[in-house]
Write a structure and sequence with these properties.
Pfam families: Peripla_BP_6
Number of domains: 2
Family: Belongs to the leucine-binding protein family.
Keywords: Amino-acid transport, Signal, Transport
Number of helices: 13
Shape: globular
CATH architecture of the largest domain: 3-Layer(aba) Sandwich
Order of helices and strands: HEHEHEHEEHEHEHEHEHEHHHEEEEEH
Signal peptide: 1-22
Structural class: alpha/beta
Organism: Methylobacterium isbiliense
Strand order of the largest sheet: 2-1-3-4-5
Amino acid sequence: MSRRTLVTALAACLAVAAPAVAPSTLAPPALAAERPLKIGVLNDMSGPYADYQGQGSVIAAQLAIEDFGPKAGRPVELVSADHQNKTDIGASIARRWFDQEGVDVIVDVPNSAVALAVSNLARDKNKVFIGSGAGTAELTGRQCSPNTIHWTYDTWALGHGLAKALVAQGARTWFFLTADYTFGKDLEGSAADEVKANGGTVKGAARHPLGSSDFSSFLLQAQASGADVIGLANAGDDTSNALKQAAEFGIAPGQRLAGLILNITNMPALGLKATQGVYIVTPYYWDLSDDTRAFAARYAARHPRRAVPNDMQAGVYSAVAHLLKTLPAVTDAGDGRALVAAMKAQATDDPIFGKGTIRADGRKLHPMYLLATKTEAESKGGWDYFKAVRTLPADAAWRPLAEGGCPLVKG
């Protein structure tokens, strides 16, 4: 199918929304006697990351269950909850799900502090955690777990990949605006390490609270630094607000703005005029291939605002698909370590990320892509915001296995 035909199909899907799938309809009646596999989507449903994951991740999981649930060998149920970006709330939900509600697998979990807490609980309870929205590379580093898989992206890949690309273009001095918690600090650290490794200089950083609405003082510090690049080590609404206010301050083109985790979800509110010259690194973009366009059309038909998926929402689909394809090979689906081991043993293959593998440290490997925002003249409208610049192969995109410090990796 041609790109033009698929774009037309996407537009048609946006006009009609299909109904959501109720958990009770996700498995055929013949499997009713089997103990169900219960999957919980845990993320931010109401805060700064609600558009990044939120209900979109639930839709992605539903699509994967529809596609692969009938062959899973048992019924599949889906639940979801809002962790409100609070570690205590996220941990409490995960504990209740594991102890009282029969949840076997928790997926997504943006907010690295919450993700680390859920990973620890999954290990203690011998359940499964698959992070798609989670960013911290510590999930496959010193805090890796035999019960955790890190699926879509991490702070090491985004920070190193984008910093290396921009330094190669001559952007040698950097200043960071950083979300003041584990995720932002990890992202800043990864980018800063790559800048310095390639002969660049970090002039400073300003840390802001999660969910900030006023970035004026932070942007003034960045502007005063005279750095070539202002690196936004944040995500969601924080990234959008920082970019909007940077445009109002007229920071570009004198200084380049690097959205270290900017993606398609931010773009409708920002527009191309406010994001000219911005590069991103991502493992998925809806317009990369016939397969990614076809998936985006299905997803958009379900989404209440007819949005296409971002990489983290697409990652939920990919992760749940692989989980369900692996399930028949596991005798006891309640044994989290056995299920994760089986997922690692089987190569991954789906229309989202293509072929891949899962390393011993739990890192899912697939290519990453360097994208640039299109000009207003280049864009055909709708969700047409980025163009591919180059592919970063899997063996170069991720932190080397020996450098993470994961106790699961044999020396």
